[in-house]
Amino acid sequence: MCGRFTLTVEQLEFIEAVQRLNLKLFGGGDFKPRFNIAPTQLHPIFLADGEEFAAQPARWGLVNFWAKDAKRAARQINARSETVAESRAYARPFKRQRCLVPADGWYEWSGPRNQRQPHWIHRPDCEPFLFAGLYDIWYPEPDRPAVTFTILTKEATEALANIHSRMPVVLPPDRQEAWLDPGNQDQDSVLPLLELPPDDSFITEPASSRVNSVKHDDATLLASEQQPTLDL
Q1: Is 99 one of the catalytic residues?
Q2: What range defines the domain where residue 181 resides?
Q3: Nearest Cα to Cα of residue 83 among 9, 155, 178
Q4: 14 in the Ramachandran plot: left (φ > 0), alpha (ψ -120 to 50) or beta?
Q5: 188, exposed or middle or buried, with CB in 10 Å at 0-12, 13-18, 19+?
Q6: Is 126 one of the annotated active-site residues of the chain?
Q7: What would the 3-class secondary structure string for 141-167 be?
Q8: Does residue 227 lie within any of the structural domains?
Q9: What is the mean pLDDT of the chain?
Q10: CA neighbours within 13 Å on the CB side: how many for 172?
Q11: Could you give the angle at the alpha carbon of 18 between the alpha carbons of 191 and 138, nearest 5°?
C-alpha cells in the first residue's frame, strides 16, 4: 500500500537527477519539494518516449484510456504486482506503458483506529529512489490528454511488515531501463524485475499526524509530535 509519499529535493537536485538518467523534461520541468503527495495530485514520472526516456507531469491515480470519467482514479493509485498482468485495469499499461515514479519516502500508519501513528519510511541515507509504476493517457476532451499513473505494490519486507503488510515496489538502478523499455512485452521477463529490496534497505521514523490532511505539505510533517519522557 502507498497512499502518500514524499520527494523533498530542491528544483536543482531534481534536474540533476533527471540529467544523470539521460532524461529530458516535458512541461517546463517545474518542481518544488513535496512532503505530502496525495492521490489525484500532479507529480513527475519517468517514461519511454520513442527511443529516449523523459520526465512527464502526471496525475496520481490511473484513469484508463477507455474510461468515461475519472471516478476510479482515487481507487487506482496502487496496483498489486501479483495480479497486474491479468487485471483489466492494468494489463495493457503493464505490457507497454510502464513508468518510474521518483520519491524519497512514503507514509504508512499503525496503531488503533482512533490513535493512528503515521510513519515516514525512507532510505537510511535519505537519498531519492524510484517506484515501479504504470501510466495511461485519458482524454477528458478530444484535444486535452491527461497522463495518469499508479504505483505497484508487493508484500512488505519483514522489517516493514509490522507497520503494513504491503509496500511500494522500489526498482534499483540495474532494473530501471529494462522496466521502462516498451519493446519488452514478455511478462515472464518483466515480472521478475519486481523483486523486493534487501530487508535493511529502508528505515521508519514516526511522523507528524498533520500528514493526515492533504492541506499540510511542509518539512514539519517529518518530525514526530511525541515528546521525550523526562527522568525525574
Answers
A1: no
A2: 5-222
A3: 155
A4: alpha
A5: exposed
A6: no
A7: ECCEEEEEEEEEEEECCCCCCCCCCEE
A8: no
A9: 91
A10: 9
A11: 60
- Number of residues assigned to the chain: 232
Q: Of the residues 2, 13, 52, 126, which is catalytic?
A: 2
Which residues have a Cβ under 8 Å from the Cβ of 174 and sit 6 or more positions away? none
Catalytic pick from 52, 86, 108, 225? 108
Q: Is residue 54 a part of any domain in this protein?
A: yes
Measured CA to CA in angstroms, residue 146 lies from 73, 111, 179, 185 at distances of 12, 37, 22, 24
pLDDT digits (tens, 9 = 90+) for 53-109: 999 999 999 999 999 999 999 999 999 999 999 999 999 999 999 999 999 999 999
Question: Of 178, 179, 154, whose CA–CA distance to 168 is shortest?
Answer: 154
Strands 34-37 and 105-110 turn out to be unpaired
pTM beyond 0.85, yes or no: yes
CATH code for position 59 = 3.90.1680.10
Note the helical H segments in 47-171.
Answer: 91-96
The number of distinct structural domains making up the chain is: 1
Domain-located, residue 31: yes
| Residue at 230 is within a domain | no
d(C-alpha 105, C-alpha 143), whole Å: 35
- Strand 78-80, strand 117-122: pairing: unpaired
Amino acid at 23: L
